[in-house]
Amino acid sequence: MTDTQTIKWEPKTRAKYDEMIEKIPLFHREIARQVVEKKAAINAQERGNGQIIEEDIVRAFLTEVPLAFYSLMIRLFDEVGFEYKKYET
After folding, report:
1. Beta strands at 8-9 and 51-52: parallel, antiparallel or unpaired
2. For residue 7, which phi and psi values (nearest 5 degrees)?
3. Could you tell me the CA-to-CA distances from 73 to 5, 15, 40, 77 in Å, in that order?
4. Is 1 within a domain?
């Protein structure tokens, strides 16, 4: 498995992601970072790509963040400019 620290990120995706993480309440920030980055790296690998792109991050948030935080996540997607609607199920 690719280490999330060494996998490359598309720069605009990284900037949006970092902005979104900073907006998550402090108490939940680190756990969100851990689970989303791990899943995003898996998503990139499954696509056969060595770079994390917006789709990987959005899909990771949608699958890994508990439903109780869904409305906050959607609000933050909008605030930072992540295109998420096409990945919702």
Report:
1. parallel
2. -70, 140
3. 23, 16, 16, 6
4. no
- Phi then psi for residue 80, to 5 deg, are -95, -10
Return the sign of the alpha-carbon dihedral for residues 57, 68, 81, 25. negative
Residue pLDDT tens, the chain, 89 long: 445 557 899 999 999 999 999 999 999 999 999 999 999 999 999 999 889 999 999 999 999 999 999 999 999 999 999 999 998 86
Backbone dihedral angles phi then psi of residue 5, each to the nearest 5 degrees:
-80, -25
Does this model's pTM top 0.85? My answer is yes
Domain region containing 30? 9-81
Query: Is residue 45 included in any domain, yes or no?
Result: yes
Question: Cα–Cα distance between 37 and 61 in angstroms, integer?
Answer: 9
Number of domains the chain is built from: 1
- Sequence letter at residue 55: E
